């Protein structure tokens, strides 16, 4: 790793009490630091660059599964050597569950809605309202509305296919 890359990276971090180094550069939509290496020109996650800076290249797999870099401190902007661990997604999710940062029984990551709310959303969708318009009326996020619309459209497609199958089975064969 080039000295210029390391110096540039370190200039974008701040020492704190909780974690030794916090990322101050660009941040992705999902809350992780983004670092553009001046030598290679590539943009990478800051925590992955920090791990490679201290430990060498990240292997493709960890315990026969694709590898990830896990934050021990659960701070997405942390780039401290002490807080970054090599793991796989299964271990990362087990850590998340152990720290109670998720609901282990929840399978659909969408919004919690009553049947009545869903029925209203479906009527609005059938009448041609956009996700944005429905969100403004109901106070829900556009990403949740997108998930609801996607599931609703899939259900409608399945219903049409089932009707076609029923119709085809009802046709007498000669």
UniProtKB/TrEMBL annotation:
Record flagged with keyword Nuclease: yes
Any GO MF annotation of the entry: endonuclease activity
Domain HNH nuclease: residue ranges: 44-92
InterPro entries: His-Me_finger_sf (IPR044925), HNH_nuc (IPR003615)
Keyword field: Endonuclease, Hydrolase, Nuclease
Protein name listed in UniProt: HNH endonuclease
């Amino acid at each position: 790793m080039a000295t210029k890359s390391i110096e540039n990276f370190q200039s974008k971090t701040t020492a704190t009490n909780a974690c030794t180094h916090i990322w101050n550069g660009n941040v992705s939509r999902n809350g992780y630091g983004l670092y553009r290496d001046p030598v290679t020109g590539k943009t990478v996650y800051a925590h992955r660059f920090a791990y490679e800076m201290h430990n060498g290249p990240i292997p493709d797999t960890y315990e026969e599964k694709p590898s990830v870099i896990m934050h021990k401190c659960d701070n997405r902007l942390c780039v401290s050597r002490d807080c970054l661990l090599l793991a796989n997604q299964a271990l990362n999710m087990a850590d998340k569950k152990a720290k109670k940062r998720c609901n282990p029984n929840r399978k659909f990551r969408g919004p919690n809605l009553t049947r009545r709310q869903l029925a209203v959303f479906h009527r609005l969708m059938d009448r041609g309202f956009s996700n944005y318009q429905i969100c403004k009326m109901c106070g829900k996020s556009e990403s949740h509305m997108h998930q609801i619309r996607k599931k609703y459209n899939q259900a409608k497609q399945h219903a049409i296919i089932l009707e076609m199958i029923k119709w085809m089975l009802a046709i007498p064969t000669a």
